Amino acid sequence: MALETYRAKRNFAVTAEPAGKAHKANPKSELSFVVQKHQASRLHYDFRLEWRGVLLSWAVPKGPCLSPAVKRLAMAVEDHPVAYGKFEGVIPEGEYGGGTVMLWDYGTWTPEVNVDEGLKSGDLKFTLQGKKLKGSWVLVRTKGRFAGGDGQSSWLLMKHNDKYASEVDILEQKPRSAVSRRLLAGIAAAHGGDKAKAGKGDPTAPPVAR
Ligand code: MN
User: pTM here?
Assistant: First the structure.
């Protein structure tokens, strides 16, 4: 696992995203995970699991769902640096992934299976300890390959049935940054981004006060 593809897609003189580096994995340290809400040309959620010094990454167009009955498409994308898990801000228009990025959720994850074997066989079970996402989940690789090739593969992200399973729409109920409490439009405004474009990913009605 390396970051060549990640770096090749980006111009770090222009984007605020971290160039990062692959860390030496410390087997004793906890593994981080992050979900970034990303209003690029289309809204999606980037699901990232720290493994062997990088963030394994999947783009989830519809975002995670707490209902065990729902399967969400998750497209495997290039590994990201661990430092990316702290990035909230704006990628300039015209750059790769141009748009606004929100740290929608973060925390630690615990594998429920041998990770390398799970990645190889296409069946990765794990537990999340996040601010919003908790409990047992699974990523299952589907047989279909993307027409574009590029080594990308499609997976399904699913919640297992446990006490954290729910029919609540977590994306709608908790639309704000887990770090800054901002909506996408607020992040865009603070970082010189396109507030109107970013706001397309925000809920239309103000969320209920908590
Ligand atoms: Mn993205």
Answer: 0.92
